[in-house]
């Protein structure tokens, strides 16, 4: 077989030999491109896209880590305001003390504790407080007293309606909530 090819090569003219050599080089270059270079370029493009996506993911992860750290710090700060397990805290008693401190105890129409609920390791205790004939400065004083509580006490719901006979006096309904570790 090889001898046959050598025999044919010798019978070719110089111009034909040049055309065959150039054609063989084109075929070899094309095969080299298809077998080696093109897969490498495809892989490089894919890796660049993956690197860009990973870089974006890393940026998003950094943002999420910062948000998580901020929320953990906020949770730690809120947990400091929770009553300790060995010191019982009665929201009902606290509400009476707060009302007495701002001289509106006689305006309390109803104070009804709600069923405590436990969610994710925290017990939520709530009290519905109804006030009748209270004035706005007194209501604001009560809200300030609640805000300055030694433990975390929040006003979940506040509804205020003016009295029809005297609009200076208000009827107010509040839902006050406190949390403790379950």
In short:
With 182 residues, the protein is an alpha+beta fold. Helices cover 55% and strands 25% of the residues. It has four helices and five strands, in the order αααβββαββ.
Tell me what the structure shows.
- With 182 residues, the chain is α+β, with helices and mostly antiparallel strands.
- Strands 1, 2, 3, 4 and 5 form a 5-stranded antiparallel beta sheet that branches.
- It contains 4 helices and 5 strands.
- It folds into 2 domains: 2-78; 91-181, Ribosomal protein S6/Translation elongation factor EF1B (Alpha-Beta Plaits).
- Helices cover 55% and strands 25% of the residues.
Task: Give the proportion of residues in helices.
Answer: 40-55%
Mean pLDDT: 88
The helix/strand series, from N terminus to C terminus, equals HHHEEEHEE
CATH class of the largest domain, named: Alpha Beta
CATH topology of the largest domain: Alpha-Beta Plaits
Annotate the secondary structure layout.
Blueprint: H1 2-11, H2 14-80, H3 91-101, E1 108-113, E2 117-119, E3 122-135, H4 136-147, E4 153-162, E5 169-181
Antiparallel strand pairs: 1-3, 2-3, 3-5, 4-5
Which tags fit this structure?
alpha+beta; Alpha-Beta Plaits; rod-shaped; five-stranded antiparallel beta sheet; 25% strand; 4 helices; 182 residues
């Amino acid at each position: 077989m090889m001898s046959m090819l050598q025999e044919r090569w010798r019978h070719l003219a110089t111009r034909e030999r040049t055309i065959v050599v150039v054609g063989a080089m084109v075929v070899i270059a094309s095969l080299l491109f298809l077998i080696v270079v093109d897969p490498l370029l495809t892989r490089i493009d894919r890796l660049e896209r993956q690197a860009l996506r990973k870089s974006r993911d890393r940026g998003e992860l950094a943002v999420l880590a910062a948000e998580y750290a901020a929320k953990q710090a906020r949770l730690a700060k809120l947990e400091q305001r929770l009553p300790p397990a060995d010191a019982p805290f009665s929201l009902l008693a606290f509400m009476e003390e707060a009302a007495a401190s701002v001289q509106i105890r006689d305006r309390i129409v109803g104070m009804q504790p709600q069923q405590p609920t436990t969610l994710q390791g925290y017990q939520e205790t709530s009290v519905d407080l109804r006030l009748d004939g209270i004035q706005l400065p007194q209501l604001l004083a009560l809200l300030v007293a609640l805000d300055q509580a030694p433990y975390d006490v929040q006003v979940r719901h506040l509804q205020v309606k003016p009295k029809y006979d005297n609009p200076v006096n208000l009827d107010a309904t509040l839902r006050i909530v406190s949390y403790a570790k379950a």
